[in-house]
Amino acid sequence: MVGSVMGMGENNGGAEVLIGKFDTNLVFSDPLPPLAVSNNGLDLNGQQHVDSNQKGKREIVLGRNVHTSCLSITEPDANDESTGDKEAYMASVLARYRKSLLERTKYHLGYPYNLDFDYGALAQLQHFSINNLGDPFIESNYGVHSRQFEVGVLDWFARLWEIEKNEYWGYITNCGTEGNLHGILVGISETLGIGSCRREVLSDGILYASRESHYSVFKAARMYRMDCVKVGTLISGEIDCADLRVKLLANKDKPAILNVNIGTTVKGAVDDLDLVIQTLNECGFSKDRFYIHCDGALFGLMMPFVKREYLCVAVDGMLDFNCTEIEIHRSGSPEMKAIIKLWYFMLAPKVSFKKPIGSVSVSGHKFVGCPMPCGVQLTRLEHINALSSNVEYLASRDATIMGSRNGHAPIFLWYTLNRKGYKGFQKEVQKCLRNAHYLKDRLLDAGISAMLNELSSTVVFERPRDEEFIRRWQLACEGSIAHVVVMPSVSQEKLDDFLAELVEKRSTWYDDENVQPPCVAAELGNESCACKLHRS
Q1: Mean pLDDT for the chain overall
Q2: Phi/psi at 43 (5° precision)
Q3: How many distinct structural domains can be found in the chain?
Q4: Over 60: is that where the pLDDT of 419 sits?
Q5: Where do transmembrane segments lie in this chain (predicted)?
């Protein structure tokens, strides 16, 4: 069997590059990928993995090869009767595909897509080729566009992130990755100062991103041939600003372009934007020497509607609780013996253009629930002139990455934002957080290692041993951990079904006393680990 040959290439701009060849006709005899390898080189059975390298890194794992199940395309037959047969065949293929989608949707838990939507009212627009190529704010000669919807959506997000209409520029992207690519590109232009001199050279600015940032951030570093410095993270997945400080001070002579995560991919951690800005200031970086892009793929839309809830308990009437530098004191009469419960609500940290940030991006197909991949990218208008150029062919300007853009996506976003509004999103966010806490508590009650960040709906837990179980529930895994992203389309009933099956499976995975659940204290912290060592 001819396999794929993968190797590590040279270090290019601080980012590792994969070099290799892949045989597209490859068919795997075993449909399952190898077991995951933990940091100590053991698989999830506790056995030494023969293919694990000396550093204990997880091997690159390929899933099932789609060539074994692809639907081939054949030329139409000139015979009318054969044409009818082919139409019937295609109809049956689509019917079976729809049935499979319905089935897979039932078991969707690991990826941040809101599957709860109904866009039947927009079906009438599928007969048109709607293309918003070029600048959203300047019409082109192509008249079949949806710019009026697009700018309406952008204005909505501008209000959310506190920037005036005449101060921002943005567009509806084709995906979340494009938002990151564009935000970082704007940062390069800004640190170069090319708005006045238009120098077509590579920036000497350094891209800083936590090691738990989305892979598209490091893709941007490779594409733009940038120096990229990976910053360490806390157990929560949040950027470690102490490590950021060390690395900023080591490169004080170069501008800093920072990616700040508003919800990391695996743990849903929110980087402390205010602390990042404070760290930059303390390291001597003035506002004209740094640029911050906020990657809010999923949580960028959720966080404005999150409230922190603190439950403060006082016995015998005395309470002394410090909460984000606000001291709350409450005294009761000596007769009061009951426990007093005090709820303190505070809005989550803000992403706002009132702070020295350069751009924000979110995905439209995640929390919003757009049925096709798309995103929203906003930046300051003053930054965009360096990237924008006249395009005579369009009779417009363009500062986007891709040029042609899906004109249907803005309509879907506009439709949902109008139907739900701020209040609707707030209700959905509260539901997601409530269900996420429910799942985390149930996992811990069942003796399963689990963690949930304070401002997140991403529940992280020990990776299941069975790859078929992982595929069935479409869990996203990394090393020895997996996660469930609780979205509006995820009900408690679905979580109960998942938990029941997981508990039943674990009883067979660990029925031998010599085989124990993995220790995930290094990934989730001691208090979240339910292994034999940490649960005692």
Answers
A1: 83
A2: -80, 180
A3: 1
A4: yes
A5: none
